[in-house]
Amino acid sequence: MNNMNTYNNYIIFLSDLMAIDIPIVIYQQDGKAYYGNGRKTESFQLKPTAKATTVMKENKIYVDLDKFKDEIDLYLSLAHEVRHCAQYQAINDVGLADIATPEMLKIWKKELREYKGSENEGYEAQHIELDAFAFAWFIGVSVFGMELHLNGVRNGKQLLSSYIQFISNNYSLEELRDCLEYSGFAYNRNQA
User: What burial class does residue 36 get, using C-beta atoms within 10 Å of its C-beta: 0-12 exposed, 13-18 middle, 19+ buried?
Assistant: First the structure.
């Protein structure tokens, strides 16, 4: 799972697609932590319920590579976490992020003030989580040709469908191809 250049290109692709500032990603494997450029940093501890987490105010994502079952699991999780960075940037009017309606932004802003983490039952029914799940689903289908199973989203299935519809309408396949080409990200099915 240690293919940093490919992961970096993927993060660039996602960031370019949403027109956001590229987040800093810190990976950890076998107890050693490092930035996407390979430079070492202090190890970190995630909640037992998390494989990755985002510190939105810092535009940083922490990823524990030991918790992923395969590359696809990692890529979809990264899409979810980068979407959280985009949400924060859109709420705070950073850069060009135009990823939601004004009504969605109001809801996300309120939820961020009262956010419930993954250790809380029903956390996945929050709008910011549903949007991030929907974005990961969209990337799974359009980039990797596989559908993310969202069985964990018990509450909010209707809202999830509306986020999937919004995201699917917001990004064209041509735009996706252009961003993929620009980033240099190339997925090899043999990686999964």
Answer: buried
In the numeric block, which tokens belong to residue 180?
């993929």
The set of residues, in sequence order, having a beta carbon less than 8 Å from that of 32 and lying 6+ positions away, is: 40, 43
Return the residue matching tokens 């949400």.
Answer: 87
Q: What is the pLDDT of residues 85-142, one digit of tens each?
A: 999 999 998 766 678 999 999 999 999 888 776 666 777 778 999 999 999 999 999 9
**pLDDT tens for residues 9-25?**
999 999 999 999 999 99
Rounded-to-10 torsion of CA 5, 186, 1, 77:
100
* Dihedral pair phi/psi, residue 46, rounded to 5°: -95, 160
SS3 169: helix
